[in-house]
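Weekly modeling sync, notes
Attendees: S.R. (lead), two postdocs, one rotation student

Agenda item 3: backlog of single-chain predictions. S.R. asked that every request posted to the team notebook include the full sequence so nobody has to chase files. The rotation student volunteered to paste the first one in as an example of the format we agreed on. Action items at the bottom.

Example entry:
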Amino acid sequence: MTKKAIKQILDTLDQEYGTTKEGFLHYADWQLLLAIMLSAQSTDKQVYDVLPGLWEKYKEVTDMANAPVEEIEEAIKSIGLYKSKAKNMKKCCEQLVEQYEGKVPLELNELVKLAGVGRKSATLFLADAYGIPGVTVDTHVLRIVKRLGWAKGNTPVAVEKELMEVLPKDNWNRINFQLIYHGRKLCTARKYHCEECPLNTWCEKKI
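Predicted structure, as returned to the notebook:
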């Protein structure tokens, strides 16, 4: 695909889905990291609904680190996979207190050492908190970029590297949520609504 075509697609995505997204409620970096952790396999609305009460209860990272896991479970029980997430949230906060003086590290290789924080969550945190450019690949992104012909890899890490070569760095952070929105709205896993898709002109539809 030519650079001109890629720019046309990116401009179309900007028009359709905007260039910024609503962030998760937080008052400190560690709260943003945990909110991103909560969002895995859950809807944004579920997370938005939980956060005000959660941060009212746990104002400091030490509050979460010292809380019984059962108490954290109760606070987030409307979220998918709440038991495992509660365990990871407590452990993550313990690590932050014990190893990082209560502060979230800003290096990807350090972030992924924290309980419940994978490469995708770490990259999203750095992008949302500090605007540090990074591409994250979930199932929506993986599906759509392969249909567009932007990547051929079969793993998130492989596709991430391909996209970083194909796309301008200025678009890395917003391509994450733009393609997720597009995947939910039109290019779904169950059915492709190509007749309505604004990217149809350029899509190679290889899968």
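Discussion: group reviewed the output briefly. The longest helix spans residues 82-99.
Action items: rotation student to repeat for the remaining queue; S.R. to check formatting next week.
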